[in-house]
Amino acid sequence: MKLSDEDLERLSTKDLIAIIRRLEARLEALERDARERMKSKAVFSKGARNANPGKPGRKPGKGRFCNRPEPQPQAQDTVEDIEVFLTSEQQLCPACHEPLSITREMATIEDTPSRPTRVIRRFTVEVGRCLHCGQVVRASHPDLGPCQSGANAHQLGPNVKAQALALHYHSGLPLCKVPHVIAQSTGIKLTQSALTQTACTLSDQGALLDKHYMDLKEHVATSAVVNTDDTGWRVNATLAFVMGFFTTDTAYYQIRYRHRHQEVLEVLRPGVKRMIGTDRGTSYEASAFDQEEMQKCLSHLLKNLSEVEKQKTGRAKSFARHLKGLLREGLELWRSYQDGKLDLPAYRQRGAKLQKEINDHLRDRVLSDEDNQRLLDGIGYQEDRGRVTLFLRHPEIEPTNNRAERGLRPAVIARKVSHCSKNDRGAKAYAVMKTLFVTLSLRTESVVAAFADLLRGHPLPHAAKR
Fold first, then answer.
1. Model confidence, pTM
2. 465 pLDDT exceeds 80?
3. β-pair partners for 275
4. Looking at the domain that runs over 205-296+401-466, which CATH code has it been given?
5. How many Å apart are CA 212 and CA 432, to the nearest integer?
């Protein structure tokens, strides 16, 4: 309450000191808050920093540690065999000067030349010109473009184009740094604008890479199992969405200004028998998907259950806790099958028993706690449609949507370190490039070489890596 001047004059010295102390404490708190706000934070960080960050490095029990294996030479590799011998002095034990028992072991060093030798192919092209009408006829070569003359006479080859595009669209290197890396590693100079124009030209409608892009869209549309998810994007500072669709050997990305079921149906056309792995987004709850077999991500469900359980006390915790235990048991069962510890009949037998327990726990009833009732109604509704335990009947679908989450992770990183896309043409180029590079990484070991083959007009590799 604000005091008037007359009220302040009537206060005693003791009361005035108390008011000053309160104001000092409030000022100190405001200054402390201001200092916290001024501290540097990571770009796009949300909220305060974690007060108890986890220990960095590999966590116990996760991953498999192994030594670097001996490299196996390929046909194109240069192999140098070097023998290293003990000197005559080293063949005697340094402690007792007795002769040593000598064996041999192998050691290798993998390296590249300090700078690869450039391959410059110079074409002398005959050009005929009609003296009557001025018509020009140029000699053709399969490696020369139709318009490679004049200002466009000197171009880059498919190998260096593939390396440069892979650095940006596959490895995530900022576009402005790609020319410097290419120049340092190969001695070939290119510009950022030339790289952008190359990507857009190759990705335009009807262009070379756009044909592969549309073929992959058709492949995903007819696949038996598809995982899908989306994340935010910007096109000329306007909100948009990167939508990803993933199978075991194919990835397809599209960028749209809205993320509704209509945009999903552009890829997942109705009338195809398939199973879809999704999160709990409302786009997948449209009536157009009523006939689709769908698996909701258990990781999202477990997170929601944990949040509710954390807020409850006593018996109110039991609903979420018991359901979490059942879902985690299902996850372990699925992993055991994938690891080969269970055959299909045993998996389905145990899965049917577990599904019966989950259905009994999600039976329609009235709970005293409102949050538990909300969970029961929401998850129970999905289970009534067969979208929580689909993986127990069909182990070919993953119980989580991690495949799509991992597929979209590079786009999330690119969004944080760039301004996304400047226009629709750039957005289309990003979607095409990500689609092809991620698909090639799923189908072959040498992504750059495979992408260079695409630029030469070769077809997409079909065999999956696994």
1. 0.78
2. no
3. 225, 293
4. 3.30.420.10
5. 9
